[in-house]
Design brief:
Elements lengths: L26 H25 L3 H33 L10
């Protein structure tokens, strides 16, 4: 579905379905922030209370983890949002023209 990291192709290479009219906008970024925040916040609290690391070490480790998880989830959530729009026939996916 993707031509690059987040760029959606104009058409599906297998079936020819037009994908250019999707409207993902800020939805994938919002969902990524929501999920990463809900995963990392309890982990940071647990790590801080259990192991008591130096704050700089804690910030460095969890910054890398947060960025990695965000980069992993963002294209998958964008694909899921485009797929949801296709399944619900939203934003031009259901037109017979």
């Amino acid at each position: 579905m993707f031509r690059g990291y987040l760029k959606v192709r104009e058409n599906c290479p297998l079936c020819g379905e037009a994908l250019h009219h999707h409207r993902a906008d800020d939805g994938p970024a919002y969902l990524t922030i929501l999920i990463v925040g809900h995963v990392m916040a309890p982990l940071i609290l647990f790590a801080f209370t259990k192991f008591r690391p130096d704050p700089l070490t804690l910030a460095a480790v969890f910054s890398v983890g947060t960025v990695a998880l965000s980069l992993f989830l963002l294209p998958r959530l964008k694909g899921a949002l485009v797929a949801l729009q296709w399944a619900k026939r939203m934003h031009g996916f259901g037109n017979d023209t």
